[in-house]
Amino acid sequence: MTDSFIILTNQISKYIIPFLLVGIPFYGLIIKKIKVYESFVDGAKDGFDIALRIIPYLVAILVAIGMFRASGAMEMFISLISPILNIIGFPPENVPLAIMRPLSGSGSLGLFTDLVNEYGTDSLFTKIGATMFGSTETTFYVLAVYFGSVGIRKSRHALVAGLIADAVGVIAAVYICKIIFI
Amino acid sequence: MLNYIWFGLIFISVVVGTITGRIDQVTEAAISMSKTAVEIAIGLIGIMALWLGIMKIAEESGLINIIARLIRPITIRLFPDVPSDHPAIGSIVLNMAANMLGLGNAATPLGLKAMKELQSINEQKDTATDAMCTFLAINTSSVQIILPATVVGLMGASSSQIFITTIFATTMSTIAAITSVKFLSRLNRFKIKHDKDLK
Predict the structure, then answer these.
(1) pLDDT tens digits, one per residue of B159-191
(2) Which of B50, B119, B140 sits opposite A139 (nearest CB)?
(3) Domain count, chain A
(4) Are A56 and A19 members of one domain?
(5) Residue A15's domain spans which residues?
(6) Which of A31, A137, A147 sits opposite B142 (nearest CB)?
(7) For the residues B44-63, what does the mean pLDDT come to?
C-alpha cells in the first residue's frame, strides 16, 4: 500500500511546479486581467539584489564550517560526543550524520551516501539516517541566508530554537525507526 | 551567540589543524568555501528571479491575500505580531507549502520574500522579530510530506519504508521548534533591546 502511495505522491510532486507556473499567470491574466508579463519582470528584478545581499553571510558561515571540517575538529567532536549519545540508545553509526546535518548540506548528504554504501538500503542505520535527513534542515545555512537577505545581524533565539528542533528530529528518528523496524 | 559559535569554529579549526598537521587543508578549505559561497549565491539569482516574478503576479492578482485569509486561524496563533492581512503571511504560507512538498528550489525564494515582508514591519532593522524567529525555526525543522529526492534516489524501493518514520520525526521536530521558539522568546536573554532602553 505504501509503495503505491509513494509513487503517487512523487508523481504529483512532478506536476506541482508546472502547475504553479501556468496556474498563477492564468489567474492573473484571464480572471483578474492584470499585466502578467510586466508584473513578472517587476518581481524578478529583486532576485539579483537578494542573491548579492546574502553573499557576505554565506561566506562567513560556509568558511567557518569548511575550516572546522577540514581541520579534523569535526571528527574529534563526533568521537567525543558519541559515548554520551550511546547512553540514550543512539547508534554510533548515526552520530556523524546527526552532528553534520545542521552544519552542512553537502557534508550530510555525503555521510548518508556512505551509510547506504556501507550497510545497504535495507539496514536499520540507513533507515535511521534517511529519516534524519528528511526530518531536519541545515539550520546554519538557512539562518545565514534568510537573515542575511534582509540584513538581520542579531538573530536572538532563532539559532537555539532551530538546533533544539534538529536535536528532537534526530532523536525522534532513532526511536521511531527502532520501534518500527526492530 | 552566533558571534561565539562563529569565532569558536574558526579558532578550534586553526588550533586542531595545527596539532593534526592539517593546517594546509584548513587554509585550502577557507579559500575554497568562500568561492563556493559566492557560487551558491550567484546560482540562486535565476531561480530567485523566476519565483519572485511569479510571486509578483500572485500578489498583484490578489491570490496571496486569498491564501492568507484561508489559513488565518493557524497563522494568527503562530505569528501574533503580524497583522493577519499582511502580505508576509501569504509568502510564509507559500514557503511552508513548498517545503512540505519538497520543492527546495521554490521554497528559498518564497522564504526570502517572506523575510523581506517581515522586515518591513520590523522597527529595529538589525534585530530579528519574534515572527522572524518563529518562521526560521519552523523552516529549519523541515516540515515535509514528500521525501527528499536525494534520499529516494539513493535508497530506491526501500525509501517507501521510511515514509511513515520521516513524517513522525519531522512532526516531532516541528512541534519542538514551535514550543521552544515561543518559550525562548519570553526569556530575558533573548528580549529585544530597544534603542531607547539602552540610552
Answers:
(1) 788 888 999 999 999 999 999 999 999 988 888
(2) B140
(3) 2
(4) no
(5) 1-44
(6) A137
(7) 88
